[in-house]
Write a structure and sequence with these properties.
The structure holds two protein chains of two kinds.
Chain A lengths: L1 H25 L2 H33 L19 H6 L6 H32 L5 H12 L3 H12 L14 H26 L3 H8 L4 H12 L1 H16 L3 H6 L8 H6 L11 H21 L1 H11 L3
Helix pairs in contact in A: 2-13, 4-7, 4-10, 5-7, 6-7, 7-10, 7-14, 8-9, 10-14
Chain B lengths: L1 H22 L19 H30 L2 E3 L14 E3 L3 H4 L8 E3 L2 E3 L1 H33 L4 H13 L2 H11 L5 H6 L10 H27 L4 H9 L4 H29 L3 H6 L10 H10 L3 H25 L7 H21 L7
Antiparallel strand pairs in B: 1-2, 3-4
Classes of the chains: A mainly alpha, B mainly alpha.
Chain lengths: 310, 367
């Protein structure tokens, strides 16, 4: 998958570069050089635009806790006290991280299991209601979560007589509502990936005597592994970043996810916002994602552009 | 509303996918009429087996809550004292469309950017304006970024990695990050050399929200637009240059029309996502701040005060509003939401068929 994208990318870059050189012979080369410089300046601006606020977060997390609002461009002295403060017992941040990992992982695995089956049907099989199913899937991913939240809150607090459960502050109360946006996202992305695989593969498998089911499990699934992996990362990040559901159903401090825990950080005095600690926690929550994104950037971009959602 | 959107897209998709599926070659069963899909043996039932778990889950986590939400919106919590018994009332009472009609009762309860008006309408106009301004800025910036990236031959990987940073940061973390930047004594004021109270409940906080949202999502639009740009063959531009088109003409006559399909879909998704914005105003400015209160924040706040009926009604209105905008996008801008991949598949299938036809029978490649 990734090699495909690579070759495609460099292939396109190569042709256009060659063609531009061809053009340069006829045209004014000074203008071309100027254009190129402008492009690089523009690219530098884009990177600065994207990175600078994040840089500010990192810098602010490395100050002394007493210098939370300092505007020095480089922290002096550099201190990791904020990072120690994040894991102070009162914040319960370790537990929050664990909760986030559990919720994101379980949701991702559940959606992958369901999504792989559904997406294969949507990408390959012919059936009457396909258009409606696709519309439902895409409709769900556009859905305002607040609409689901109110009835779910009543359901999980056992307000309805027909559903005598109390799920508040449980993992299932965090995982089930997350399926509402994670599953459509997963199905949509996987459908796009499955469509990219040539259908001839299955034809060949069928010539060799496989049924549709065998063709799926023996041929398509192993070949779609990169796409499945990418979808897993995108889904994981979406669930990891989710805030509203986690805020509502995991109100108990021991059931906060990491984003919710960060939003509830308060200073020792209760008046001053502990910016240093909040930024340190933000870096801790974000850096694993950014590392994953940097490693798998080609695949993620391919996945995002193929899926077109979020 | 939703049914009409569904019907629209369904019929569109059916008509589009029609020629694809029927046109697919059937190498394994060429004898049987030749039009049947090779994978079609028991397809419908196999598809039902594969899709039913997904559909059951969607029904459970989306379908049932929507219906309950609609039901909720017809009820209101009892408050006050029962006039006949003199006891404090308990439970809920059916009010029909009362929660909805209350929206139009014109009581000026809050006063923010739009003057004194009902808190719902204040949130409604906030949502609409924030969405409109954000989408315009994000689209312009995103397209500009995509154009720059497409011009560069080297270093595209670095830019792509950089662009994914805002995308990967959790929205609530970015909200708190911008909260620090926009702090009264923060870096934004220091750079501007002014003392703007960005985080108070005022017009500045409205713009702070917009800046934070544009920062996070403009690169994303850029990324999706770049994918569209890369599909434009260079020959088209060469031909335009030969014909004497200047850079601006090339942009408006070639680039924009050719990236329009992918751009419209990207903008549609961003629009719908911005309309339900919650994390950013909630985390950065806080709930109950009327200058930045979106419909999601308002409904959430109402639900938090256990006024579930009105909260459900507001969320349903937001839902209908979002569906309406999606419908308009599909209808008037031709956003190819559902059929997007199908169209591409159709093109691929056509290409494949042409190739196969050429390979087998050289005379029949009429399509």
């Amino acid at each position: 998958m990734s090699t495909d994208v690579t070759s495609l990318d460099s292939g396109q870059g190569g042709t256009s570069a060659a063609e531009v050189q061809q053009l340069q012979r006829g045209g004014t080369s000074g203008k071309q050089v100027l254009g190129r410089i402008a492009a690089y300046v523009g690219m530098a601006l884009i990177v600065l635009y994207c990175i600078l606020p994040f840089y500010w977060m990192v810098v602010s997390s490395l100050r002394l806790p007493t210098m939370g609002r300092s505007t020095q461009l480089v922290p002096s002295p550099v201190s990791v006290e904020n990072y120690q403060a994040v894991f102070a017992p009162g914040n319960n941040f370790g537990r929050a991280l664990l909760n986030s990992v559990i919720v994101s992982l379980v949701t991702t695995l559940l959606t992958l299991f369901l999504g792989i089956l559904g997406a294969y049907a949507l990408a390959r099989l012919r059936f009457a209601l396909k258009g409606i199913v696709l519309a439902i899937v895409i409709g769900c991913s556009m859905f305002p979560q607040i609409t689901l939240l109110i009835p779910l809150l009543k359901m999980f607090t056992g307000t309805y007589e027909w559903l005598p459960i109390n799920w508040m502050n449980t993992y299932q109360a965090l995982i089930f509502p997350s399926l509402s946006f994670a599953l459509p996202l997963c199905v949509w992305n996987l459908t796009a990936f499955f469509r990219q695989l040539p259908v001839e593969l299955e034809y060949a498998a069928m010539v060799d005597g496989c049924g549709p089911m065998q063709a799926f499990f023996r041929i398509i699934l192993p070949l779609a592994a990169p796409g499945v992996f990418t979808t897993a990362i995108i889904t994981f990040i979406a669930v990891w970043n989710e805030f509203m559901i986690a805020l509502t159903f995991g109100q108990d401090k021991s059931m906060n996810t990491a984003p919710v825990a960060i939003s509830k950080f308060t200073g020792a005095t209760g008046f001053d916002t502990p910016y240093g600690t909040i930024m340190a926690a933000g870096v801790i929550v974000t850096v694993p994602l950014i590392i994953a994104v940097l490693i798998f950037q080609r695949r993620i971009v391919a996945g995002l552009t193929a899926g077109g959602v979020k | 509303m939703s049914t009409s959107t569904d019907a629209e897209s369904t019929s569109g998709e059916a008509s589009r996918s029609g020629p694809v599926t029927s046109g697919r070659p059937a190498p394994t069963k060429g004898g049987k009429g030749g039009r049947k899909n090779a994978l079609s043996d028991g397809q419908a039932s196999f598809a039902a087996v594969l899709l039913s778990p997904t559909m059951v889950v969607i029904l459970a986590v989306v379908g049932v809550p929507i219906l309950l939400s609609i039901r909720e919106s017809f009820f209101r919590k009892n408050d006050g004292v029962d006039p006949t018994t003199g006891l404090v009332q308990q439970g809920e009472q059916f009010v029909g469309l009362g929660n909805y009609s209350a929206i139009f009762s014109n009581n000026a309860t809050v006063s923010a950017m739009w003057g004194p008006m009902d808190r719902f309408w204040n949130a409604f106009w906030n949502t609409s304006t924030i969405t409109l301004v954000c989408i315009v800025l994000e689209t312009v910036l995103g397209v500009a970024m995509a154009l720059i990236m497409s011009k560069a031959f080297r270093g595209r990987g670095i830019v792509r990695a950089g662009i994914l940073v805002p995308w990967a940061i959790p929205t609530i973390v970015s909200a708190l990050m911008w909260k620090l930047i926009f702090d009264e004594a923060g870096i934004a004021n220091k750079i501007l050399g002014q003392q703007i109270l960005w985080l108070a409940d005022n017009t500045s906080s409205f713009w702070a929200i917009i800046i934070a949202d544009v920062w996070k999502t403009a690169p994303f639009i850029g990324l999706l637009t770049l994918a569209g740009l890369q599909t434009i063959p260079d020959e088209v531009y060469e031909a335009a240059r030969v014909d004497g088109a200047n850079a601006w003409q090339q942009f408006t006559r070639i680039t924009l029309p050719m990236i329009k399909p992918s751009l419209v879909v990207a903008v549609l998704f961003r629009t719908l996502d911005t309309m339900r914005m919650f994390d950013l105003p909630y985390g950065m400015i806080g709930p109950g701040k009327y200058f930045v209160e979106t419909l999601s924040v308002f409904a959430y706040d109402e639900a938090n005060q256990t006024r579930f009926g009105p909260a459900a009604a507001y969320s349903i209105v937001l839902f209908i509003y979002i569906m309406l905008i999606a419908f308009l996008f599909v209808k008037f801008l031709g956003a190819d939401v559902v059929g997007d991949e199908e169209v591409r598949a159709a093109r691929d299938a056509k290409k494949r068929r042409r190739k196969q036809l050429k390979a087998t029978t050289s005379g029949e490649s009429a399509t």
